[in-house]
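Supplementary material to the annual report.
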Amino acid sequence: MTFARRVLVLVAAAAGLQLACGPVRSQTPQRKGQTTVVLLSESDGSVGRATVSNPSGSVELETARASTTVEQGEAPAQPKEMSEADVKRLFGAALAVQPPAPAHFTLYFEFDSDELTTESRKLLDDVQNAVKGYPSPQVTVIGHTDTRGAATANIGLGLRRANVVRMRLIEAGLDGSAINVTSHGEATLLVPTADDVPEPRNRRVEITVR
Amino acid sequence: MKAQHWIAAIALVTLAAPAFAQQASPAGRVKVVSGSAFIVRSGGTIRAEVGQSVFESDSLRTGEDGSIGVTLDDDTRLSLGPSSEVRLSTFRYAPAQSSVGLAMNFLRGIAVYVSGQIAKLAPDSVRLETPSAIVGVRGTTLAVQVVPE
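Predicted assembly:
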């Protein structure tokens, strides 16, 4: 047994002890295929939700570090809170190699134009800086328009807007092959409007850096 | 002669079809690697490197000293500790066509999953499976351990 494997088993046994209700047993047997699921807080501190189920039953995880263990063929155990220390011990190696969280930016454009608004021109620097923080960065650029004008023409306008952002990122040193450009034209409005309505908030390019 | 040509043409088309199907667009990319980590693709094992593409149906596998982190195109993140394996059984992300879906099989070891756009757009289309349970998510960071079989 290698060191890494030994640590994993010890850690799992420790977690088993922590989770076991009733008398503490010094050797909690680890069953093959046994699953432990722990709900962790998001980076902004909020907590999502998860349902852990199988044909024998189902439990909800709704609070930070709520955890359940499931044996094969048995219902998931009632959720218990796993200590922060145990989360670190059990999952530290996987947490250590989490890729950085993707970042999202929205840049706005002048009416019927591929010219960035003054504020958005400044924001472009933030995008360029953000890209540097990612290993093997990828950037998705989606161009959008408001509903003024023909839908087909707006596909073209959205694409021109997205390409302006693409060119600026390439000028800043990003490899063009890392940038994916598309246009939704007027199909995906940020602010829903009727057709043929000028709306500054819909004249935008959405950027994801990951 | 003519019949033979036709047969050859049909054979070519038949052969080309599965090859074409394999040229699917990537589902994501390897972002972090430490120690020995691999991508298992159609039976073969490739050593994982930062920047490599990950496709639907690929498995991520780590050795006893390995760990790996990937980011999928919908912002989903998945990282594995040592002696672990997770299969990306389904990845569909075409929100403009309302076609999204994500399924992962946690086969063994430890992994951390952070949900992305698919879980936001269609939470019911996300399915995380282990040998003993199915996990449904609602915008969630989850840590999963599966004891090896």
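The domain at 26-146 of chain B is CATH 2.60.120 (Jelly Rolls).
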